Queue: 4 jobs
Job 1
Amino acid sequence: KSLDVMGSPIRIQFKEGENPYANKRNTLTPTQMRKRKRLMKHIKKSK
């Protein structure tokens, strides 16, 4: 494929295959959970 970009020539390689993170859920740390809970409280209050 060709992109009309000026500057240094670059090569982009498209890879195919399974996503290794497809079924992994991001587990939040206790600090992140606390912050999320606090932010959700503010969002609910403003509605």
Note: DSSP finds one helix and no strands in the chain.
Job 2
Amino acid sequence: MLLAGDEFGNTQYGNNNAYCQDNVKTANCKSKKRANTASLLRAVNLLINKQKTFD
């Protein structure tokens, strides 16, 4: 299951409710590059395109 932002490597570092915390772990740091972001984004795009063929 993917949630909004997961395709870009978004993480809450195991915290299921990050709204209650205001610290470095829950900050949205876009400067960090994650190794698998490009491959996950390609996979999500592939799945979206496959779904569009059935609609």
Note: Residues 5 and 36 are 13 Å apart (CA to CA).
Job 3
Amino acid sequence: MPYSEQELDRLSRTLEKDFKLLQTLKLIQDYHSRVFKCPKCGSSDLERVSLLQYKCRQCGSTLIYPPFSPSDFSPNIPFSHILELVNLGIIEAAHGGSKGISYVLVKPELVKRVLEDKGFIEEMPKIELPELEGELESEEFFNLISDFRSIVNLILKSVKSGSSAHFLLLGPKISLKSLIIEELTRIPGSYFYVPGADPSLDEVLWSVKPNPLIIPNLDKMKSSVDLSTLVNFISSNKVFVRKVGDVIQHRSTITASSSSERGIPRDLISYFITFHLPPIEDEELRRKIMTKLVMERSGKSEKLANYIAGKSSLFSDFGFREFLELAKLCDDEGCVDSVVSLLLKYSKPSEKKRKSKGQKS
């Protein structure tokens, strides 16, 4: 439903007086984005037939818009906000029920405009694999780029639509797995949750409400509480928060990663769309990717970035993220050598033995 400039001005002035009303609008807009789509083709191009009935312009299917109740949200929407939004013509009362009167959003374009103006809706960053040099433009290289973009765009589609699909990336550190995880951390609203960390998973979902939620090393999640929280959340979009003794509802796309399926409960794996990502075998290709990543993410010169990437052959346990962390520490080659020397000195015993044998040969 279109809106006028007068309606926009009136809503903007109201929000200046009550900032919390803006947060309520964001909750309602998020709900609307999740449910306002054709059940058959997924299109959001819907024509209003009645208060609750819409017709899809793409496939002709009908949709019954599920109204919301203030108690459906956590925290519950204050009744004063409901009255204000009804008076502004943003929402309309639909019908009564076990939870009281339900409502529908009738001015979604107006709400979206205001949220964008206030910075509550951020544009997703353009995700691209660093452009590499011409000599590496082999079939393997093009396939790598194509697969990277396809997987990232698939995850982004879920994040934007609120469809709550979930993804599991399996593979070694030097693979598309690391590149994809690194890119997803740049999405506004993302949260990087390390298994076993504090706060617990239920508290993160309650207080941060991340989307997407990124879980590295899923096989290291051993807490029965976190595992139970994860399964319940994936299967129902609900979380029991022990700290407050309450159940909240939230939608989020989860992207987890692991080196293999070992250590991950089989019933948990079944909830994910799984990608088995092989290592990037070509050493020169790995080095070029690392060089470009270090340059773009840390602002280092091409010479220093290439020098850092050249150390990749010394650390089989390192992935792209570790080299980005190394780049943050150093601004010259001497610093790189010093840090690398320490890392080699205190690397795993098996790694030392392998390096020693390699140096003797």
Note: The chain has three domains: 5-117, 134-276, 283-360.
Job 4
Amino acid sequence: PPRDPLLPLATKTPTPRPAMPLQNPRPHPTNATVVLGELQRLRSGKLRLRFADEAINRFGAQSQVLSLSLPLTSRRVEGRALDTFIQGLLPEQQVRTMIENENGVPRNDDFALLRAIGAECAGAVQFLPPGTTATSGHLRDLSDSEVDDIVRGLPTLHAPDSLPLTASLGGVQAKVLLTKTDRGWAWPAAGAMSTHLIKPEPNTNVVVEWLIEAEHWASRVADTAGLRVAQTELQDFGGRLAIGVKRYDRGPDGRLHQEDFTQALGLVVLDKYERSAVRPGRLERIASEVSNLALRPTLFKETLLRMVTFNVLIGNSDAHSKNYSLLIDVNGNFENAPLYDVAPKLLLNRRLTTAGHTIGGQPDLRYVTRAHLLREAAAWGIKDGRAAALIDDVAASVARAAGVVAPIPELRHLPELIERRASQLRDGSTLQHMPADLAS
């Protein structure tokens, strides 16, 4: 049927499992590019993906090098799994609306938006216009005042010199993707790699006070406790504080492929929070399906349990399916991506109670106990004794780290809350048993 011009889908071949932390790529590396296929929009509006013979020959039929939910095949791919994978690459809500306006893209037109900003996506994929080839793009150095203006202007985003916005990252928070070089900050243009995402403190509709300071503190606690976590720093941009997050899917050798749990499980973005306790739950599905594709299946499941325990411990009410991700190497092997977006929201606002996923059948962070974590781990095939040891180790190491990493004065209550929560995880009680004056 008649359709829009083909949109080639290319991927930068990732290097297997980079060590953390990542270094800033300078100059922009160019690693081997493989054309994975072509994305089409049919007259009906549906999306269709045709994998290239080159990709199938290189990676093998049924390889999941692109996504757990999109194995390579010679057949045409349409439907929910494709739609949700594409949606997972794009921004959400008002951030999306702003970028649509900036690029003159119709509302809710995934194909058109991807055509405008798909040259720099999460992971190693690039979506490029017909007849073009993948390039390393170019950087436009930014002065301090230009960076300040960009960050202060968020959620409205204006590129310097009227350059087009060519970078995409999912999520609802206002943010900008920039590249850090030896000279300072730069604007990634024409598909150049960004190295950091910059998220400022919200100006309006503030649900959680001191949010980015709390996220930065929790990230440092996780790192001090020995958990893999995206590196963060706080920086003032002309009077507006922002958190800078170093991208774990960018390395000195190029782009590293990844996908989040919504993409891996074929979930629409609006369903990123799991609210049903029907088995198998999402975490159980990931532990089962992905561990079979991991080089070290046991390590994959145990690392996931440590990450889930950490998010429960700190009261992260945004630990949903877009805030866990998987790294995928060139051979289609999966591993856990580092933790990210680890703000302890429940400890700052008692109304934010969702666990993001059901854990042992419990979706409410206030009621998740050691027993729920053990039940969840058992569903993944981890024996109770081993699961208990992992949970206790995370609780102890995070409690120690919270006592060492000093928060800002406004958040000085957080270390004690974390230490009490660690004790409660060990003795089997719930967050509801915490004194009201501390939990407020």
Note: The first strand starts at residue 7 and ends at 12.
